Amino acid sequence: MSDRKPILASGPGNVPGVPPGRPVIALRDVQFSWPGARAFTLAVSDFTVERGERLLLIGPSGSGKSTLLSLLCGILAPQAGAIDILGADIARLSNTARDRFRAEHFGIIFQMFNLLPYGSVIDNVELPLSFARRRRERAEAAGGVRTEARRLLASLGLDGDLIDGRSAANLSVGQQQRVAAARALIGRPEIVIADEPTSALDRNRQQAFLDLLFAEVANAAATLIMVSHDETLAPRFDRIVRLEDIVSGAAVAA
Fold first, then answer.
1. 195-224 burial by CB neighbour count: b if 16+ within 10 A, else e?
2. In which domain, by residue range, is 177 found?
3. Distance CA 32, CA 104 (A)
4. What confidence score (pLDDT) does residue 37 get?
5. pLDDT digits (tens, 9 = 90+) for 116-154
6. How many domains does one find in the chain?
7. Are 127 and 183 in contact (CB under 8 A)?
8. Is residue 129 within 8 Å of residue 186, measured between CB atoms?
9. Are the beta carbons of 149 and 188 closer than 8 angstroms?
């Protein structure tokens, strides 16, 4: 099932490389298989995401959600098909070029956050800018990299005394989640991917985090794809897509 609501474009201008009316993400006839005689195989014939859309991708554990996200972000390359992201077919790029593309255009909130445990809060937020020149330029234009990092952290509900000097290893799960979100959003990447970011939170904290995340995604005029197995989150999103409706052959190959 795919439930689509009208998308309200936010923020100035059009997404670079994407003509008006064209999706920011389009998968066509994509096929991917892990190596091995009984490998997991995934095929997507047609899947698109519009500019500014807030999309919830639902599927149970082991259904191929992580594999699909890895293909979208260019961590994996398909054996066949096209993965058009912001007007570029990343399936045709080299590994190095896909890494550069991902750093510039994607902000990723990992399920386990993947923070540098002994790095400071600010160091963790600023880390992606070391690999993304245009994102760094946008952060500098917003008032400076450090200022923008602090603004994001404050907007996401992290107290000032936690921002200064505290290492990521000394933060609670909820605090680490906010740092991970700020890291994904700094420099205004066009696409934000969130992999089960609320799975460790109770219901009230889930809703509060989504309020903050949606506000910052809208402020950046970004497109959001969030993966979850929690269907109660569905009313918060513009569209809900069940993995089994867009993926065929996602099974253990004989």
1. bbbbeebeeeebeebbebbeebbeebbbbb
2. 2-252
3. 24
4. 54
5. 999 999 999 999 999 999 999 999 999 999 999 999 999
6. 1
7. yes
8. yes
9. no
Contact by Cβ (8 Å): 166, 120: yes
Identity of the amino acid at 199? S
Amino acid at 133: R
Q: Whole-model pTM above 0.85?
A: yes
Percent of the chain with pLDDT over 90: 62
Select from 213, 11, 16 the least CA-distant residue to 101: 16
**Cβ–Cβ < 8 Å for 163, 93:** no
- Pairing mode, if any, of strands 40-49 and 106-109? unpaired
Give residue 36's pLDDT: 75
Residue type present at position 229: H
Identity of the amino acid at 218: A
Closest listed residue to residue 57, CA positions, set 78, 72, 39: 72
Name the helix (H) or strand (E) containing 133. helix 133-141
Q: If you write DSSP's letter for every residue of 163-202 in order, what string do you get?
A: HSS-BGGGS-HHHHHHHHHHHHHTT--SEEEEESTTTTS-
Q: CA-to-CA distance for 20 and 138, rounded, in angstroms?
A: 22
Residue with tokens 């939170």: 201
CATH code for the domain in which residue 233 is found: 3.40.50.300
The DSSP string of 82-128 is EEEETTEEGGGS-HHHHHHHHHHHEEEE-TT----TTSBHHHHHHGG
